[in-house]
Predict the structure.
Amino acid sequence: MRETIQISSRYGDYDVIVGRNVLTRKTLHIDCLAKAKKVAIISQKNILELHGEKLLKSLSIPKERLFIRTVQRSEKAKSIETCTRLWQELLKEGFSRDSLIVAFGGGVVGDLAGFVASTLLRGIPWLNIPTTLLAQVDASVGGKTGINVPQGKNLVGAFYPPKRVIVHTAFLDTLSKKELKSGLGEVLKYAIGIDQRVWLKCKRESFKATPSAGLVTACLRAKADVVTKDELEGGLRKILNLGHTLAHAIEGAAPAKMSHGEAVAVGLRYALALAFKHGVASSEYVSEALDLLGKAQLAKRPPSGLTFTKLLPFFAVDKKSEKGGLTWVLPTGPGQCKLVKGLDNNQLAKVYTEF
C-alpha cells in the first residue's frame, strides 16, 4: 500500500510518498534526479551497510555521476566543520546547480544534508529518504534544515524543502529498540497535542513491535496539515514544538544523556504537568496521556542532577522566546494544545521540582 501526501510550499510543492516498500525506480523518477549531472548521497556508514544496496539499485545512476559521503553517527555531525568539509569536497568534484544531493539516514543526516543543499551555490535540489522512525514521522517533512552551535540545537539553518520525500517504512525493521523509542517520542507528541487521529491510532497500538505504516502516515498527515498552513513558523507551526522546549534544554545542558525522543517524552510529561497546574487540561486527559507514554516505556524524568537552574540558559535561546518571554506549548486534550505566555521562572521551577 502506498500513499502520497502533497506539501504546499512557497519554494515549490513536493510529494511525500509513504508505504512499506516505496523506495523504487518509479518513486525516484523525478526530473531533478534524471537531469542531474552529479549526485551526492550523504549518509552514515552503518546505514549504507544495511540499506545502501537497496538505494543504489533504486537510484540506478552511473558510477561516474555518483558520489557518496559519510558523516558521524551523532549530533556532532551537525556542525559547521562538517558542512565546510562537504561544501569543499562537492565543489572539488565539480558540483553545480544542476547537481543533486540525496539525504539517506535519520534526522541528523536530513538536517545536515538539507542545510548543505540550501547553502551550496545558494541552493541546489535535494531528496530526503529518511531511515529512522523519528525522521520518518517528523524531521523529514516541513523543510527545516540546520546545524547545531554551542548555544543550542538547530539555531543555524534555513527553510529549504526537498523535491521529494520517500518514506520506506520497511527500513524500520532494522532499528534498535533505542532508536524506535526515540521516534516514539515524536509519535506521541502528535497524539497528545497535535492530531486526534494519531491519538486514536496510538490507543490501538501495542508499541511492542515496529509502528505500522498507517501510524507513520497519520503522523505525516498531521505534520503536513500544520506546515502547509504555516510554513515559516509564524504562529501555528510552533505547536509542533510540544515537549521540545524542555527536551532541547535537556539536550543542551546534558549532552548525550538522552536520545532526542526520550527527551521529548520527558518534555511531554512536563508540559502535561504545566497544563494541569494552570487549569487548561483535565486530570482524566492527563492520566490517559501519561498512560500512553507509559505504554511506550519512554523516560519519565530528566537525567539525574539536572537542576532547573542549569536549564535556564537554554530556555533563553529557545526559538519560541520573544520579548514577551518564552511561549510554552501546553496540551489541552487528545490531539489538542494551545500556546501560553507569561509563565514566570518561579512557576516553572516549582512544577519542574514537583515533576
About this structure: DSSP finds 13 helices and 13 strands in the chain. The mean pLDDT is 93. Residues 263 and 321 are 20 Å apart (CA to CA).
